[in-house]
Amino acid sequence: GISLQPGLSNGMFETITTDINRIETLTSTSKIHITTSITTSVDIISSITEIVTKELAPTSSHIDTTITSATADLSSIHVSPTQPTTTPSPTPVVPKSLSSLLNQDCIHMEHLKEIPDYLMHYFPVDTSNCDHPFTILTNSIRPFSRYYFPIVAPFFMTADLRSSKYNSSVYFQGYYSFDKSNKSKVVLDKATKDVNEYQKTMQSYAVNHTEQEQEAKFGKFHTTVQNFVATSAIVITWDKLIPYPYYRNEFGYTNTFQLVIVSNGQNTFALWNFEVDGMQWWKINSRSPYHYFYGNPRSGYALGGNRPIYHEILGSGSQSLLRIDSAVGNTDKMGLWAFRLDPAGDHINHQQNCLAWYYNQQPLQYYNAFIPSPCPCSFFQVWFDRRFLWWGRIANFPCAQTRFPSPTFGFFRGDSRQWIHRVCCYSFDRIGFGALIQEWPAGGTLTYDNTRLRNEDHNAYESCCVKSSLCRLYYQKRGSGSCRNYVPPRRTWFAGDPHIKTLDGKQYTFNGLGEYTLASVRKGYFIIQARTSRANINGTQSAQATVFSAFAAKQNGSDTVQATLDLIENHFTISVNGNVSLLMNDLSINKTREFNNVDLSLSQNGSLIVAYSSGISLEVTPLTGMINIAVNIPSIYKGETRGLLGVWNDNIDDDFTRPDETVVNINATESQIFYQFGQTWLISESQSLFTYPPGTGFANFTNTSFIPVFSDGLNLTALFGNNQELLQKAQAACGSDSACLYDASQTLDVNLAVKAKDNVNRFQTAEKEAENFPPDIVGPTILNVTFGQTVKIIFNVTDRNPEDTFIIERHILPANASLNPSIYELQWTVTEYTNFSIQVVAKDSNKATSIYQPSQIIMCYCANEGSCDYSAELVSDGSISQVPCKCADGWTGDHCTVDFDSCLVRPCFENVTCIDHPAPRSGYTCGSCPSGLTGDGRICNDLDECANATTHTCQQICVNTFRSYICQCNPGYRLKSDGKTCEDIDECFNPQTCSQTCQNLPGSYECSCEPGFTLSSDNKTCNDINECTDNTHLCQMLCVNLNGGYRCACPAGYILHPNGRNCTDINECNTPGICSPHASCQNTLGSYTCKCQSGYTGNGKTCTDINECSSGTPCGLLADCYNTNGNYYCQCKPGLYSINLQSAQKQSLKDDTTCRRGSAYQVSATVNGTYNSEFTNKSSLAYLNAANQFEKDILNEYQRDSRTSYNVKAVTVTNLRQGSIIVDFVVATLQNFTTPSVILKTIVDNNPIGPYHVQSSTVTDFNECSSSAYNNCTGGQQCINTAGSYNCACATGYRFDTSSRLCIDINECTTLANPCHVNATCANTNGSYICTCNNQSCAPGITGNNCEIVPTNVGTIVGIAVGSVCGVLLIILAVIFIFKYKKKKNLRSVTPEQNLLPRPKDETPVAFENEGQQEVLY
Known about the structure:
By secondary structure, this protein is α+β, with helices and mostly antiparallel strands. It is 15% helix and 30% strand. The protein contains 18 helices and 88 strands. It has an 8-stranded antiparallel sheet with strand order 26-25-24-37-36-35-34-33, covered by helices on one side. A 7-stranded antiparallel sheet has the order 32-31-30-29-28-27-38, covered by helices on one side. Strands 18, 19, 20, 21, 22 and 23 form a 6-stranded antiparallel sheet that branches. Helix 4 packs across helix 8, helix 8 runs antiparallel to helix 9 (471-478) and helix 12 (724-734) runs parallel beside helix 14 (750-771). The chain is flat. The protein starts with 17 loop residues before the first strand and ends in a 31-residue tail after the last helix. Residues 1-141, 1142-1148 and 1381-1418 have low confidence and may be disordered.
């Protein structure tokens, strides 16, 4: 199991970040000290998240535990609880060289080493150390509810590492999101997938299960974490472990399994994986006869500290857990378990967030390379450097940032967001006021211009500097740096009636009237132009001097900014690109109005600040009647300026350089400067940046003819025009300032001149303060100190301003530290080792200050003869870096101040007292082993009492057990009640001992058998002798063996003879029902045969009637076939009769005896019977029997009556309908029978039909033409019904052909004599013919062309008329006859229900015997 540091806060678990540190010896008795550094935080064990690498040193709590080199519970890992101390205890972390720390007493590397990538589910690799890793526990397998320290144990049981035979190993490796290797990505992706699949299982299970059921399966914490993405995974793999003691593992069985602790930095999960068939310890007990392997393993986790937060999986604490690899885990997968280890909610691990951010950042120079200026060295320099803008505070100190962001390498690589500002912070403390703060956490930083990236950095600062002790990492990536190489911008000005100071410091007066180039930087990259106007005299007159009234400035890629002062209205306006108009009231202090590469704002004194992204800035101060302008140009443009500001190259002699690069003498007079230099910088209209008011233009503001008053050679009286009063006022206000006196003389306004003078003084003061650098105080950057020793530091203090004087004084010093300012020396006796800092202030005569603070103090504090390990990584504790200690035996803690409690992890055997050796002694003493065990108390082995006859009291056999023994007896004896001695067992007392006869013997017994049996090889069981197989029986046919004998038997068909040996045949035919009633029985020897009778088919035992009517036409075409059991009979179709009458209509009808046609009448008689529903099925037996009986009864009535006894030949029932019983039948009579309808009805109505009385009846002609089944008109003949019969005839123009039995066309052209005129041609058609004369058809009676013309005379006409009248009369008579005939036929029509003689369409018609001559009728 793996145990975790218990929380010091009110959270469930303490956040820890684990890193293997080092290995060292605890004692000379081969004990091994294994510890790990852990970063403490709050609430959870998302702790095991990020290993600090690459010389990082998180704060941690020091912990110590021990294991023995002989045995180790490699199946569990824990972190022991923090020891109480009186001082904070920062702890060291990763050593630079693991191998340099290994020694002969450390655990062998093969037990904790690198393994192949393919092992198990993850990829552990070597990160093994022996000092402060997860603790490997020993011995105990107590329930998890009893552990006072946190523990996570996939398989908790004692393992043995003393044998090298099995190559047992434990592997450990961490994988982290900041590690960009593919291996880490693969492992973290798999960990993410495994955790999320487990969470889906939890969610599905929660739908149908209670809270208690969920906790039983998934542990205490079973809520899910949304969008979980692993950022760290620590993998521990136990490979091929053998159980203790190793020498009893004679079969070489091992266990292999794995623990993975996964975190997203806020939540933590534990996964344990058991390799398929990797858990083999259970096989030891299954093969060992004496069960040398004892104990019940456990699996689960616990919070510790006797708190009720723990969980054990099903089967924990039992032998069944030995086969955990074959069990389905709570992930619903074989051998896989998972648990969430923190309570619900998100728990932020700020150390991990800081580290993740740190490893995703580029080196500092990546961001710093393109920022044009380092930080100003003092607060005052910032105040006048318009490249910076007051920004905010860091750690309550004011900070300024660059006004415009600068690109980083990332910008040039395509990320347009990567523009960055430099932020510089300054001290506001009384002593160090205004000094640049360089060190964290209050030092300046770099900050993105992009909001999203800036917020990410802000969160990183919170995680690194506010919520954790990793601030040094943040400043390694975002520190703003020192002020080394800082150069303030060169500051110059234009003021008053214009007085100008060049960039190299030459002051002169120029009173040109027009628009001029003040400065052109880098050949026009930046241009500032100024407009002068004639100064007002008392606001009403124009003076012979000029003042600045407007300016315009532009940089490549920027907007053009213009400011104009209306000298009459004294109205100051600002415009951008000539279309955006602003007033001074539209701007505010330190809040900018941003335009393209230029910002506008106000200074503290109300001046307009125009700042360009190039770093050049203007400060414009509007006064009554004039404006003053200060220009700030960074040093990068040195040597690249031209214009009225001169050439900036620190050579004043060439400041009067004209546009053509010729130079005017620097000592020229005012008039020479005007004509030879100033006027040459008058701009042209095409060069102008100005926007002009409506109705005006360039020419309105330029006057080349204006000649000012030159002060050359004039005394003050002349300059003031003999105005002594004004002169005296000006002298009183201006003193000896010639520029102020000149302005007063020309404007006649002393106040205006003084304002201009004061403004120039401010410019000069600002310039002086900007050029004043604080002293440089230099001391050790890294300060190495040792607790209890005295440290001396000599400072080197200098100043860039040689005229300044300076002093040093203490600012913040630790206790017992003193500063000697005269010799610049600090002396400190180190009595503190944490929570202190050193700051010494250097201050010059102008009150500019700088602060010395070591960037790192490395503290060595190792008490109680401990030594500092400078080869190890350091642990940050605020501004202090603690050196790890190598503690002397018996001591532990970060500073060797804690008595190492060797009993912490309960190294003694369970329930054995552990006594710690107080420091300076080391180690511990274990009490005596429990009863039945032997050993030193640390490892207690079972005492084998059976190994020595003097240590047990068994009479016969001794069997060793855990902590005891039991006595057993040899076979045949039982243990007596004293548990020691043995007595003989009477085996024969148990009836099951022998199967037949038993004889008891001392310690044994003997079995024997009765006759007919033989004793088996087990000497207990009697086996029967089989007489039937050894031919000792006397049976004729069959022999049946019996237990102890046999009997004779006969096969089927025979019966045993009374003598018990012979067999007699059985006549089965005497047995009733042995064959089918429709079969005959034939006896055979030992058997019989059954044969079905004629008319039946089957095997004789079952005979089925043959339906003769189902195949062929056994009754011919004129009779219907009716099947009967074993036979069938034929009956003439309705309307036909047999010459042998109805009684003769049997099977004989099929023997070429034809049915004859008589007259047929349809009769429907309603009788008083009850209708049977089965009558609806004409194939049913009920219908057939009833129809047959009705036929017999009706025919019998007609045969009894003399009127019909001869004429009625047959009665055929065609249907039985419901309505009482309606019997439809057809009566066939001789054709010459007269008045049949009346007679047939009378007989039916007046006579019973069998048992029934006729209630009503109807008699109609039977229409044979109603269905082709009732007539034999074929080949296209038409059926013509007649009374009692029918005729067949072909249509006109056709005749019946007896051979083909078809109606064929008559060819009138060949069969009639001269059907057409001799001059016409006859053409046959279907059923007729046509006559055609030569080339045309002749109308009837008309001929033409070659046809003969019939003469038309009176006789002919009369004959035709008479013939026509007679024809009409004949047609009328024919119509009347047909109408009456059809009416009669309708009375004789047959209904569909009476269509009783169906015939297939392809059935061949057969002529009636007595009507063959009527086949063709014309």
